[in-house]
Amino acid sequence: MTSASVARRIEGILRTEAPQVLGALVRRFGRFDLAEDATQEALLAAHRTWMDGGVPDEPRGWLIRVGYRKLVDILRSEDADRRREQEWLTSDPRRADAGAPAPTARDDSLELLVLCCHPALTETSRIALTLRAVGGLTTAEIAHACGVPEATMATRISRAKQTLRKVDARFELTDAEELTERVTDVERVLYLIFNEGYAASTGPELTRVDLTAEAIRLTRMLVSARPDDAEARGLLALMLLMEARRSARQNGDDLVVLEEQDRSAWDSELIREGTRLIETAWEERAVGIYQIQAAIAAVHANTMKSAETDWPQIAALYLWLERLEPTAPVRLSRVVAVSRAFGPQRGLALLDDLDADRSLTGDPLTASRARIVRAHLLDELGDHEGAQRGFAEAEEFATNDVEKRYLADRARR
Question: Basic and acidic residues compositional bias: what residue ranges (predicted)?
């Protein structure tokens, strides 16, 4: 085995075990900020040691023991005479055993996800902390994904950890109602991570495969921890059905819209899995926003000819979704579905009504999307001059390079 392949194997193990090591240390010490630092040091030590000496039989146990020693060293450095450490160890009888926590089969992923999505944190901090603590991404990778400088992201993550410490955030939740509320926040964060990967808001790439893959991986962990959560299954189904279309969304450097995609290039295995998931989730009595979006994605994914798409069904699903999630992106998507089902004139009338009642130009992203939808409808109705202006205006708002090229090309045409 070459050194490169050994390094890849070690990196894979460390990526898988990192959340479990962090969870064990947080559960034992109650200090997320210090446990995260100790975990990172343990991972670095493992990479150095295992490259020469090989991976131990129980890598998780090795990492937890090293992480424990690193964390104790950090605590001792905070208080040279060790009073702080002693006070901490004796403050709870369960902590009296000074030995490193033994590795168990327990999966701490859900607890970590819930902790990273603490209500005291902002939404951007939740995303960053989730990607760092549970996803194992480096600060540089997270900064790139979020479109901010690495120093800015490092500060954001540091402040998030300080906030958790100030509010004495607990690792374990015993209140079922609180857990349910927090899991809703977890699902929201995973949804946002996937969306940023599927349609990158800035930069030269249309998609960020590292983010979509990480969102899917973390959502699988959530479904595994909460198999009876229909919304979690709906969220995973949505991600899989959307990801199935990724390879067909670009032709070289050019964006390919849904109607023009080569559907034979869609990933049939992901479609089958996503469809099975949404079919089982749909049987639940309560239906949520991710299940509805997954149902819409399933209609597209299981239609092999664009002309055969059941747009009336999709329009009805978007109306249902709008009642649960009355946001501008959902309303614009309903406009598109209505225009496909009942004609562009009907779609344009609905767009005018929504814009008058709800103002679809409140922020740059929404304004860009609204102009794109209007330009497509005007083009279909034969108002090519109006469509050209719409595409050109939308290009000014776009921040993704692939999308900007697409809009410029549509304006020229």
Answer: 83-97
CB-CB contact of 388 with 352 (8 Å): no
CA angle 33, 35, 37 (to 5 degrees): 75
pLDDT in tens, 300-325: 999 999 999 999 999 999 999 999 99
Q: Tell whether 364 is covered by a domain.
A: yes
The model's pTM = 0.76
The DSSP H or E segment spanning 370 is helix 364-380
Unique residue bearing structure tokens 């295995």: 269
Confidence bin at 67 (pLDDT 50/70/90): very high
Amino acid identity at 260: E
Q: What is the span of the domain harbouring residue 48?
A: 1-95
C-beta of residue 379 within 8 angstroms of C-beta of residue 387 = yes
DSSP for 279-327 reads HHHTTSSS--HHHHHHHHHHHHHT-SSGGG--HHHHHHHHHHHHHHS--
User: How many domains does the chain fold into?
Assistant: 2
pLDDT digits (tens, 9 = 90+) for 141-158: 788 667 678 899 999 999
